[in-house]
UniProtKB/TrEMBL annotation:
Source organism, top-level taxon: Bacteria
Organism the protein comes from: Miniimonas arenae
SUPFAM superfamilies the UniProt entry points to: LigT-like (SSF55144)
The protein's name in its UniProt record: 2'-5' RNA ligase family protein
Length: 213
């Protein structure tokens, strides 16, 4: 595990309102979640003492750890039937990897402008799953999806102000940086909210992936 700093002058709040978002509004999305991924849970818990109680640092609670994949649309803009069709497609065998493809490897701790995250190389199976999700959403909703850069990451904390960056870096180095291999992530279709400086959700449908390795 290596610590890499992004290209920015100073940290800043993650919690500005993106276009369309407002308090109380919910968004439909596809994430990987980690409720049955003990390797990731253990590693995230190791960082808690280093991150907790720091000014401007909002630690992601373990139940809400996630890897963002593909947005679907706001709840008030997607019909229940369309949502069901998207969910069936993205969770189907044609859109998910075969078991035994090998774990999701997170080998970098990335310090970004708005948060601290575990990240790693983009495996072929994850890139394929992302492409299948984008196709499903585009076809069901009848919209053309613009391809965007996909950098898989699992945020451990978000910033809500400029932070003591040297202090944070020193604290996480004391934890000890270790690679993480995730073998059982959960592919989840979610109704997402972000009102209280944490992303929370209601599960629409989900499926545990057996990656092996």
């Amino acid at each position: 595990m290596q610590l890499v700093r992004g290209e920015f002058e100073r940290t800043a709040s993650h919690w500005w309102w993106r276009p369309g978002w407002e308090r109380g509004r919910r968004y439909l999305t596809v994430h990987l979640t980690f409720g049955v991924a003990p390797e990731l849970v253990r590693e995230a818990e190791c960082y808690l003492p280093a991150l907790s109680g720091r000014a401007g640092v909002d630690v992601v609670p373990v139940p809400w750890l996630h890897l963002t994949m593909t947005g679907i649309g706001f709840v008030d803009e997607v019909s229940p039937d369309a949502l069901e069709e998207v969910a069936l497609r993205v969770l189907g065998a044609d859109a998910t990897p075969s078991s035994g493809v090998g774990p999701l490897v997170l080998d970098t701790l990335f310090l970004g402008r708005e948060g601290l995250a575990l990240t790693g190389p983009l495996p072929g199976w994850l890139a394929g799953m992302k492409a299948a999700q984008e196709r499903a959403v585009g076809e069901v909703l009848g919209v053309e999806r613009q391809a965007a850069a996909f950098r898989p990451h699992v945020s451990l904390a978000y910033f809500d102000a400029e932070i003591d960056e040297p202090g944070l870096v020193a604290a996480v180095h004391e934890v000890g940086l270790r690679d993480v291999e995730v073998r059982t992530p959960t592919l989840s279709v979610l109704e997402l909210g972000r009102d209280e400086h944490v992303y929370t959700w209601r599960v629409i449908r989900e499926r545990v992936l057996e990656l092996g390795g």
